[in-house]
Amino acid sequence: MLGAILDLGLALLALYLVRAIRTYYSLSHFGGHWVAGWSRLWLLRTQGSGEMNRRFTEVNRKYGSTARIAPGMLITSDVCQSFSLPIKSILSLLQSDFAELFRRMSAVRSPFTRGRWYAALKLHPDRDNITSYVDEHKHAAIRTRMAPGYAGKENVHLEADIDEQLLKFLDLISSKYVAQPERDIFRTVDLSQVTSYFTLDVISKVAFGQTFGFLDHDQDPFGYLANLAQMLPAVIVFGVYTELTNIMKLPAVKAALPKSSDKRGLGRVMGFARDRVQERFGPKAIRRQDMLDAFIKRGLTQEELESETLTQITAGSDSTASALRMTLHFISTSPPILDRLLAEARAGIEQGKISRPIIQDAEARQLPYLQACIKEGLRIYPPVTGLMAKMVPEGGAMIDVDGVEKFAPGRTQIGWNSWGMMHDPVVFGADAEIYRPERWLVRDESEKESGRVARMNETVTLCFGYGRFGCLGRGVATMELNKAVVETLLRFNLQSCNLAKPFDEKVVGFYVHTDMNFVVTERSSGDQSGLVRLEGDKVDAGALAGAYEE
């Protein structure tokens, strides 16, 4: 008996070694840390380091634009060929420019599919959501039904709802956090907190017609953000060992997961979402033209809505909050940039081109320097750093790595390095590590110059994904940024409390910022220096596509 068990053990070990060796050599021609070829421990350590964005960028710069980070996974920072096409399709596209190539790779009929990595994004213990579906047909079906809800045409309250929450945000800062040193009143505000409160209340308002109440209470009434921080270790592990997500089906584990009956944390948010969804069904159903109503009109069931709305909350708030706070940080700590932005905004107000008390989205899209500041914020701190891994189709694909074609076998996962892409000096210039909005402004009318700016524009939009992998909430996010950046800076001076270390940061696919403390004082409206003239009724300011655009 003992001999038989020993023989079985040796046979299993031999099988494991054969598979490990085969997997190692299948991608051995791609550069990478040697451990990454044999084990996912290197990837786990990197994702748990709190600086995965920078470490992945170091890997791409050292080992190539597409490099190995796990036995069956690559990562790319190559804008031109983020996810290569199947061999049979490559020859017909060798002459395509990088933007067209990326579009075709993300197109509806592209053979590349979502990788197993997406399974880790399942938030509800029983149901998948639009971000966690690996099945392409299910993902496409739910995406088609949800897309109209994010468009301004059906969500008639969208802009008014955002304006309402922005006024609350500005009032909170004004009433509670403005310092008055001349009266010995010294206060600071943690920008990482209040920006999260703002975006969470925006997404709950536009989705459900009712806010969580973060801004009303100036705190986390559900303990949601603290609970999310506690869950980070699990998020990191599941992102590497996606097969472990299956343990959530075990009764004992399932009982310990957040549930809608919880009084605090993620479970409390699940309960809030469940209650708002239930209000839309039954004989006394509430009717309101908003996202939820658009989803219901297109056949989403009550169960699907409970899962999808939870995803809206988590995915739709954090990325926008990080983009907002980082853009405010870079502008407020760069006086020449701040002065130029304020001059543009004040000129617009003086000429009646900017509504008060809140700028309209269409008006913000006519301000070239504001749009440059927003795009530069998205570029230098891309809101999502997760791998978003796609899977190579059966039959494999050729990947161009710095001019050398290399073969990736079928079912290889290819993650994207958003930080590396957005800091590429070939696309953004030798000073790509510097926040400089002027790079987005066209310097002359030459074809070369227009091509330079177009290439940057096409690259920065990738931070929202593209095609069937694109972010449905892009329009809502850009509208929030268009309004909140300029309105905050028109009203307040923001002074970082510690320029040597302006905030603490942990990067786990998204940014966890803490202690982003600023001294806030009211800005005088009397300074009209540097006013610029906004010519014409309509300006091509190079704004990113928004909620009202396809």
Automatic annotation (TrEMBL):
<protein>
    <recommendedName>
        <fullName>P450 monooxygenase</fullName>
    </recommendedName>
</protein>
<keyword id="KW-0349">Heme</keyword>
<dbReference type="GO" id="GO:0005506">
    <property type="term" value="F:iron ion binding"/>
</dbReference>
<dbReference type="GO" id="GO:0016705">
    <property type="term" value="F:oxidoreductase activity, acting on paired donors, with incorporation or reduction of molecular oxygen"/>
</dbReference>
<dbReference type="Pfam" id="PF00067">
    <property type="entry name" value="p450"/>
</dbReference>
<feature type="binding site" description="axial binding residue">
    <location>
        <position position="471"/>
    </location>
    <ligand>
        <name>heme</name>
    </ligand>
</feature>
<dbReference type="InterPro" id="IPR050121">
    <property type="entry name" value="Cytochrome_P450_monoxygenase"/>
</dbReference>
<dbReference type="InterPro" id="IPR036396">
    <property type="entry name" value="Cyt_P450_sf"/>
</dbReference>
<dbReference type="GO" id="GO:0004497">
    <property type="term" value="F:monooxygenase activity"/>
</dbReference>
<dbReference type="GO" id="GO:0020037">
    <property type="term" value="F:heme binding"/>
</dbReference>
<keyword id="KW-0479">Metal-binding</keyword>
<dbReference type="InterPro" id="IPR002401">
    <property type="entry name" value="Cyt_P450_E_grp-I"/>
</dbReference>
<keyword id="KW-0408">Iron</keyword>
<dbReference type="InterPro" id="IPR001128">
    <property type="entry name" value="Cyt_P450"/>
</dbReference>
